[in-house]
TrEMBL record:
Pfam families: WD40 (PF00400). Residues 222-262 are annotated as: Disordered. It comes from the Eukaryota. WD repeats lie at residues 281-322, 323-364, 407-448, 449-483, 533-566. Keywords: Repeat, WD repeat. InterPro entries: WD-F-box_domain-protein (IPR050995), WD40/YVTN_repeat-like_dom_sf (IPR015943), WD40_PAC1 (IPR020472), WD40_repeat_CS (IPR019775), WD40_repeat_dom_sf (IPR036322), WD40_rpt (IPR001680). PANTHER family: SPERM-ASSOCIATED ANTIGEN 16 PROTEIN, WD40 REPEAT PF20. This is Sperm-associated antigen 16 protein.
């Protein structure tokens, strides 16, 4: 701080101190005279009455007391930092006051106008500070408003763009919808043309076959006329040979001395514990009742309740061939050992033989009088056996297309039929709860297995030919030893029917198609279940191992699909 140039003497300081003391005494005396007593519960106390508290309608309000003139000047000089002027004023003021030049009447309070000006000045300062703060707030608000306005403009522009894109998409969708609506009649027309062309193709094929037959007969007639015109060259031997050539030969019965090439063979058991569903194909519009593997190539045939049978390439599941001709559900399908023919059984009581190469029905067998259930080719390819609801099984000669043998003995529907590998023994499973073995040549029953308590749905041989597995509607699967003609194992699969079963190449693993929409695999040597394969949505109707490698398993179900497990 700045040191003042003038400093009062000691006498002046003493006089100043004395004057200050007197002023304080005067103020205190004035305060005492203006006090009043107020009563409390404890006694009387002096109550200040300096004009600070004024009663107004029962409410207290604060009133500011005016300043004296010397305090006003001091405050004024201190306010503007005039320290030297303040010290000069103090010294001169106290000197004049001690010398008695000031009278009490002259030391009045500051006029009200100055006090008001001072108060107004303070108020102006406060208002300016508030104005600055308000300006800052207004500036921030303006910045925020500008920011919000820009965001609003951006979002408004974005909304307009989105609305335009939406309208454009709506227009495009309407145009595409209108465009695609024109496709439906076009597709219907093309489908109709395709169906008509296919019918015409079939009719042309039939016409071609008929013309070929007529041409062949005409050639035979011409040859006969030439032979008749040349009577000198004909003799009785030639006539006999000619008449003999007109009728086809019957196929000879299979010999008994054939041996099964797989009797002493051992194969690795299928690893069914690692099987998982890799493919599932919806190939029909109804329940698939039977599947069969092609003997040479990876092709599977399926028979369905939608009156059709189809061939599929594996493992892609591509449709190879579709057969239509039955008038009722198709219950069974089987491949010829050479793979050139397919036989199907149906609820229309017929058995049809199809030529795969020519893609047509070669012959229809109508010997059964009730629906047929299953069929099987002999391993030499000369005979076909069928089973029917008329309680019989029949053997047909494929060269003459005539019935050569009828197996009678069951008292209920014959549900399944199969050949023993490399043998002339026929295996049948019947609704009369029995499984029987028949001699193809004599038509006699060789052996009957008893033990099932309900209808037998299927019976199959192992590849070695020494074991038979049969399943019934109670979910029971029985294994029979053909050599000793006895049961050696019974498998209970549960409350649902066991619809079909299949041996793997080793004959040690058995797969069972169950009515609970699962496939149960069983280890025959360990006599224990291996795995329960689940993936179908309805009852599994048939199951079969891939016959050449055991690499995968195929199942058919009532959910109109067949699945591949690998």
């Amino acid at each position: 701080p700045h040191t003042p140039s003038w400093r009062p003497s000691s006498s002046v300081r003493r006089a100043t101190t004395t004057s200050t003391t007197r002023s304080c005494r005067r103020i205190l005396t004035s305060w005492v005279t203006k006090t009043s007593l107020w009563m409390t519960s404890t006694g009387c106390w002096p109550r200040p009455n300096l004009g600070l508290l004024v009663a107004d309608s029962g409410l207290a309000r604060v009133q500011q007391r005016p300043q004296v003139i010397d305090d006003f000047f001091r405050n004024f000089l201190m306010k503007f930092g005039m320290q030297r002027s303040l010290e000069a004023f103090q010294g001169e003021w106290y000197e004049l006051q001690q010398s008695g030049q000031f009278k009490d009447s002259e030391l009045e309070i500051v006029p009200d106008i100055y006090t008001r000006n001072h108060g107004l000045h303070q108020e102006v300062v406060l208002l300016r500070e508030e104005l600055d703060k308000a300006r800052q707030v207004a500036g921030k608000a303006k910045d925020s408003w500008d920011k919000f306005r820009k965001e609003r403009d951006f979002h408004r522009t974005h909304h307009r763009r989105v609305a335009q894109e939406k309208n454009k998409l709506i227009v495009d969708l309407k145009r595409l919808k209108k465009h695609y609506e024109q496709y439906e009649p076009t597709l219907t027309e093309l489908r109709h043309k395709y169906e008509v062309s296919m019918k015409e193709k079939m009719l042309m094929r039939l016409e071609r076959d008929r013309f070929l037959a007529k041409s062949a007969s005409m050639q035979k007639q011409l040859a006969q006329l030439q032979m008749d015109s040349n009577e000198d060259d004909l003799n009785s031997k030639g006539l006999a040979e000619n008449s003999k050539n007109k009728s086809p030969h019957q196929a000879p019965w299979p010999s008994e001395d054939r041996t099964n090439p797989y009797v002493n063979s051992s194969f690795e058991a299928a690893r069914v514990s690692d099987l998982k569903k890799t493919q599932q194909f919806k190939g029909h519009n109804g329940a698939i009742s039977r599947i069969a593997f092609h003997p040479k190539i990876p092709v599977v045939a399926t028979a369905c309740d939608d009156h059709t049978w189809k061939m599929w390439s594996m493992p892609e599941g591509q449709l190879v061939l579709s057969g239509e001709g039955h008038t009722d559900w198709v219950s069974g399908v089987a491949f010829h050992p050479r793979g050139s023919l397919v036989a199907t059984t149906s609820g229309d009581s017929t058995v049809k033989i199809w030529d795969v190469a020519k893609e047509r029905c070669k012959h229809t067998l109508t010997d059964h009088c009730q629906p047929t259930w299953a069929c099987a080719f002999h391993d030499l390819g000369d005979f076909l056996v069928t089973s029917s609801m008329d309680q019989t099984a029949k053997a047909f000669d494929l060269q003459t297309m005539k019935c050569r043998q009828t197996f009678r003995g069951h008292v209920d529907s014959v549900n399944f039929v199969a050949f023993q590998p490399s043998s002339s023994t026929v295996l049948t499973a019947s609704g009369d709860k029995t499984v029987s073995l028949w001699d193809l040549r004599t038509g006699l029953c060789v052996q009957t297995f008893y033990g099932h308590a309900n209808a037998c749905n299927q019976a199959v041989f192992s590849m070695q030919g020494d074991s038979v597995a049969s399943c019934d509607s109670d979910g029971i699967v029985k294994l029979w030893d053909v050599r000793v003609v006895s049961e050696y194992l019974q498998i209970d699969t549960g409350q649902h029917p066991a619809n079909a079963c299949s041996f793997d190449r080793s004959g040690k693993v058995l797969a069972i198609a169950s009515g609970d929409a699962s496939i149960k695999t069983f280890n025959i040597d360990e006599r224990a279940f291996i795995a329960n394969l689940e993936g179908h949505e309805d009852s599994v109707q048939d199951v079969a191992f891939e016959p050449n490698s055991n690499k995968y398993l195929v199942s058919a179900s009532s959910d109109a699909t067949f699945a591949m497990w690998q």
